Amino acid sequence: MRLIIGGAYQGKLEYAKKTYGIEEGWIDGRSCGWMEIADCCGIHHFHEYVKRMILAEPEMGADGGTQIFRFCTEDLTLLEEQAQEFSAWLFQVNPALTIVSNELGYGIVPMEKEDRLWREAVGRICTGLAAKADEVVRVICGLGMRLK
Predict the structure, then answer these.
(1) What is the pTM of this model?
(2) Largest CA distance in the chain
(3) Cβ neighbours of residue 65 under 8 Å, at least 6 residues apart?
(4) Which of 10, 29, 35, 146 has its CA 20 to 30 A from that of 64?
């Protein structure tokens, strides 16, 4: 598993495509279903996927099962447990996955509670993913800095 992080509009997806030779097989976290993660090569806008898993109604899978992860942002202890379980699940179902996510922890703290909790959820989930990932890269201005 690979985790590519960085600020908005820093060229993370293009970096991942070129560096790892993954032109096809990407899903978009803004619109993908949870079951698509198992079969894709990479997911970009992962931070938006997390937002959808906080706000969305349960989604039915092709096998008739409902999505197995919805994140509770009201209880930070529970959120931490969910983040660890979710990162373990991702690693189990798709260990070769490349994840591209914006870093949300920099800049002005959002005024809206929901946005602060979303930022917290993304941070905790990406921390869990980084611990399991074979490689973690931060992209700035299209240039990757290998962190792990």
Answers:
(1) 0.86
(2) 43
(3) none
(4) 29
